[in-house]
Structure formats: C-alpha cells, structure tokens
Amino acid sequence: MSTHDMEETGMTERQALMDFPGTEALQAAGRVEPPSAQVLARALAAVEEAVREDTAGARRAEVREEVRTDAVVTPLHKRRRVLAVLALAAVTAGVTVMGVNTEAGTRHGAQSQSQSASVFLNNVAEVAATQSAGSGRYWKVRTDSAESYITRSMDATYVVSGKTPRKTRFPGWRLGSRTYDWNGLDRLTTNPAQLLRQIETTTKASADGDEDAGTLGFVQATTLLANAPAGPRLRSGLFRALADLKGVTVVGTVKDSTGRTGTELAYHGGVGTTKVIIAPKTGTLLELTEPWRTEKDQRRATYLSTGLTDTIG
User: Fold this and answer.
1) Could you state, in order of their start, the residue ranges of all structural domains in the chain?
2) Which of 10, 43, 144, 308 could form a disulfide with 302 if both were Cys (CB 3.0 to 4.6 A apart)?
3) Under a CB-based contact definition with an 8 Å cutoff, are residues 235 and 128 in contact?
4) Are 236 and 126 in contact (CB under 8 A)?
5) Contact criterion met (CB below 8 Å) for 204 and 248
C-alpha cells in the first residue's frame, strides 16, 4: 500500500487490503467441501481475466507512484478489484482465510479440524473401495519385527528372522463386543453407521484393561484395517465410520519409522492419544501407535506389507 493511499483513505494497510467486495463472504466461508473441476476452472478463469485487465491498465498508465524503496506499486483501487475476484474464487474453491477474524477462528478451530479428518477419511474410503481383493491361501502380514500367515481355518504361522517358524491358532479380529474369524469378516456389515455403532459400543475386555473404551474402539477399527483380510467394501465402510467418530483429528503429513510418507490422524481418548499413519493414495495403514497405561509408555506397530499369498516365506 502506498503512502498516498493511506493518507487518502485514512485506513491502515491491513484494513485497506481487506476493503474489497467479497471480503465478508470470504471471512465467513471457513473451510468448505472441495469443489468440482468445473468450478475450479471457472474460478481460475475469472482470476486470470482480472489480472489481464489490470495488467493492461497498468501499462497504459503514465503516472507511477513512488515509495521510499523506489518500487512501483499497484494502485489501491486496482488491487481491490483483483482481490475481489480472488475472494470469490477462494470462497468457491473452499479456501480458509487465516487470521482475518481471530475470534471466529478460535471458535471454529476444533470444528474445522474435525471436518478435515472427516473429509480425509471419506476420501480414503473412496480409494479403498476401488482396491482389488486379490487371491491366495494365506493372509500375510509383514511388520518390522515378524511375518504372519493365516489360513481361512485360522491356523497361523509366525516367521521371525533367525528363528524356527511357530505355528498356532489365530484368535481372530475384534470389533466392538465380538471377535471375527476370516469368514466372519466376509459376513460383517459394510454399513458405516452400523460399524460406527460397534466401534462406539466397545467395552473393555476386563475390568483392569489398559485402555479406555473409546481408545479401544478406535484401536480395534484401525488394527482391523491394518492387518485383517477385510474386502474393499468393508475397508471402505470402516473408513467412513471413522470419519464420523468424534475425537479424530488430522495431524498432518509425516514419515513413519521406516521413512515412508503418510497422513497422520490422532484419536484423543481417556488414556492418551492414539496415532495412525495412512497412505492416502492407497488407503494403506502404515503405522499405529497406541497408549498403554500412560502417554509415555506406548506400543507401536509398523506394517510393511499385507496381502494374500499362496506360499509361506
């Protein structure tokens, strides 16, 4: 903003920058759902047209304003016009204005964070629904410490480097108040609302359990997504159920313990914070860190690969 503009209008630079048509809508918009490609294209075209017109006008102008740095600045009335178009485009495209209204930002901060988690998980649900189920005799899970091979009859073989493979029975995957074997997962509902009720009604396995019921429900659902032979529809339903679970927030883009990049989500429960890292392009769960008794004493599982196979080893 030039010195002349400030003297002429009597406004501070911050006030002048926000003095353009559309600023109220931009401040009130907050975060909205992502727009379609057509909407984005129209918004971009409007911005480009405004910039072209103002650039042409600036070239025709014979008088330039000088400031102490001898830089040429765009006159305030021209910047207002471009900002007005940008405001419309930003509201259309779902942009959040930060710091414009501190009180409103504080009031809606938690809600926006929750919405971000919901949007992210619903997007991942769409990805999961398109994944192939695959085929094979064994369900293989490879972590950073071992490999496990599970059959439909729930016979399990555990392979640890340098040790003799150990065979045993796999107890199943728990969700809510029930434990499911492989065939049971195939029959489990894929309805997100029904899955959410199961997650929310999780009870402790024992009175002296380490985790609170809410944390346990979140851990069960994410563990099932991480290491169970759940089909594409069930995985999609679980992601959508977690999208509606209260207490889930987006932490941001992080790297897991092996250096892989993913989006970290956090569930804030009674015992502590449970964290899960998800690869958004594949819907794969990379890592799960859950509290155990205290926030300082946590258990971490890093999932290197999962899938069906016909051979052990």
Assistant:
1) 3-100, 121-309
2) 144
3) yes
4) yes
5) no
Which amino acid, residue 141? V
DSSP classification of residue 199: H
Summarised one tens digit per residue, pLDDT across range 118-165 is 999 999 999 999 998 889 999 999 999 899 999 999 999 999 988 999
Q: Rounded to whole angstroms, what are the CA distances from 215 to 122, 170, 235, 247, 256?
A: 21, 23, 19, 10, 21
pLDDT in tens, 170-208: 999 999 989 999 999 999 999 999 999 999 988 665 444
Alpha-carbon gap, residue 232 to 190, rounded angstroms: 10
From 232, 233, 302, select the one nearest 262 (Cα to Cα). Answer: 302
Facing residues of 288 across strands? 276, 301
Tokens found for residue 22: 């559309």
Residues 6+ apart with CB under 8 A from 26: 87, 90, 91, 95, 97, 100
Contact 167, 181 (CB under 8 A): no
Yes or no: say if 228 and 251 are a contact pair by the CB < 8 Å rule: no
What single letter denotes the amino acid at residue 305?
Answer: S
Residues 6+ apart with CB under 8 A from 34: 94, 119
> In degrees rounded to 5, what are phi and psi of residue 21?
-60, 130
**Rounded Cα distance, 142 and 27, in Å:** 48
Give the Cα separation of 112 and 33 in Å (integer): 11
Q: Could you tell me which of 59, 62, 60, 29 has the C-alpha nearest to residue 43?
A: 29
Contact 14, 7 (CB under 8 A): no
Sort 161 into a burial class: Cβ within 10 Å, 0-12 / 13-18 / 19+: exposed
**Cα angle 97, 100, 101; round to 5:** 110
Phi, psi of 210 (to 5 degrees): -75, -30
Q: Which residues of 34-49 are buried (b: 16+ CB within 10 A; e: fewer)?
A: ebeeeeeeebeeebee
Q: Which helix (H) or strand (E) segment is 83 a member of? A: helix 76-93
Overall residue count recorded for the chain in this entry: 313
The pTM of this model reads: 0.64
